[in-house]
Design a protein that fits this description.
about 375 residues; mainly beta; Immunoglobulin-like; five-stranded antiparallel sheet; 25 strands
């Protein structure tokens, strides 16, 4: 008898548990969703976002079955059902509609009142960054732009987006296949892991917290190039084995600069150097072009703070005569190639009695005078 009662109690417990796990359908209208917000997905085209993400507070109702998302493309249209979802969010791919709202639907099919609607208001768009400048680096480009988009609306600003594409140096035009380099909240960005000698075009846009994308900044092109620091070259009397410098020696005769062919220090006796260090007999050391293809000109009229202060290579003024090596002064070299000039630059850091210490850079893209700073504004004609 005790065994029979035990089995009955077990069956009763199982039935009770099943009832507890089963939702009871109640003919009541569920609460309307609240807290509806939206965020656009930027695409690079301010007038054509990639999509929109809607989010709202989850409704706490055991009889909730789905949410319904309604939208309309203009104020003259009626709202239509866009989608149903069990999640308190919805991703609408493509160019979004003008206005959205959400409802809750219970298991009995009863539908709540609409949530407060959201309007995709393009007037929230920020101004485009007004300027864009750059500094060429070894395998990288440092970008910097005006922060006017942030200052226009600090509370509505989210981040900047940086885009890049190829660049046609001969025609001064950017390519058409743009890619996203990255995003940042600061008005600076380092585009890294770039191949030296290959020009790139850059543009920057500003994004609001709703995802609206501004028009782009002015476009800039720049070209990464190899460089080196604290190179020591002697006079032949000081150290004959380290008395000459060459920016690039195409040992493979393929026009491609390898790391072992760049920034070469060797003996002046080889006769193949771009320049040597020669005393003038008055206590000065002269930076003197050696091979027939090399000429030199001083950059500017006075000291420069850093190698990156050197701008586009000067158009003229190059000569084969030696120039006095002066600390904190920049010099640009023009080397004749098979089709185009090549350009290199140095900044003298120190001058000793029989040696010169300098930093150097070289543009591996033949014919490209853009050495270090301020890539050109690209024509939009």
């Amino acid at each position: 008898m005790r065994g029979f009662l035990g089995l009955g109690a077990l069956l009763a417990s199982a039935a009770l548990l099943a009832c507890q796990n089963e939702r009871v359908v109640v003919n009541e209208v569920p609460p309307a969703p609240t807290g509806l917000t939206y965020e656009l997905e930027p695409s690079g085209d301010p007038v054509s976002p990639r999509g929109i993400i809607l989010r709202w507070q989850a409704v706490s109702d055991p009889n909730l079955e789905v949410y319904r998302v309604y939208s309309r493309a203009s104020t003259s249209d009626g709202f239509g059902l866009r989608a149903s979802t069990t999640s308190p969010s919805f991703h609408d791919d493509g160019v979004p509609h003008l206005e959205y709202y959400v409802t809750s639907v219970g298991l009995d099919g009863l539908e709540s009142d609409p949530s407060a609607s959201v309007v995709v208001d393009e007037r929230l768009r920020l101004p485009a960054p007004a300027t864009l400048t750059s500094i060429s680096l070894n395998g990288a480009i440092h970008l910097e732009w005006s922060d006017n988009a942030y200052t226009a609306d600090p509370t509505g600003f989210s981040n900047y987006r940086v885009y890049s594409t190829s660049y046609d140096l001969d025609n001064n035009v950017c390519g058409t296949s743009w890619s996203l380099e990255g995003s940042t909240v600061a008005p600076t960005f380092l585009a890294a892991s770039l191949p030296n000698g290959q020009p790139r075009c850059f543009g920057v846009s500003a994004i609001t917290i709703e995802g609206f994308e501004s028009l782009w900044s002015p476009l800039r092109y720049d070209t990464p190039r190899p460089d080196g620091q604290d190179v020591l070259v002697f006079t032949p009397a000081g150290n004959a084995a380290q008395s000459a410098f060459r920016f690039f020696l195409d040992a493979n005769n393929d026009g491609v600069a390898s790391p072992l062919e760049l920034g070469l220090v060797g003996p002046a006796s080889s006769g193949t150097a771009d320049f040597t260090i020669v005393p003038d007999g008055s206590g000065n050391l002269l930076i003197t072009p050696q091979r027939a293809a090399a000429q030199v000109v001083q950059y500017g009229s006075g000291p420069i703070h850093d190698l990156t202060d050197i701008d586009i290579a000067p158009v003229g003024g190059y000569a084969r005569t030696g120039i006095i090596a002066t600390p904190r002064t920049g010099y640009v070299f023009q080397m004749t190639g098979t089709q185009f000039y090549s350009y290199g630059a140095i900044r003298v850091a120190a001058v000793g009695t029989n040696y010169v210490v300098f930093d150097w850079s070289y543009q591996t893209d033949a014919g490209n005078p853009e050495l270090l700073r301020m890539g050109r504004t690209v024509s939009t004609q």
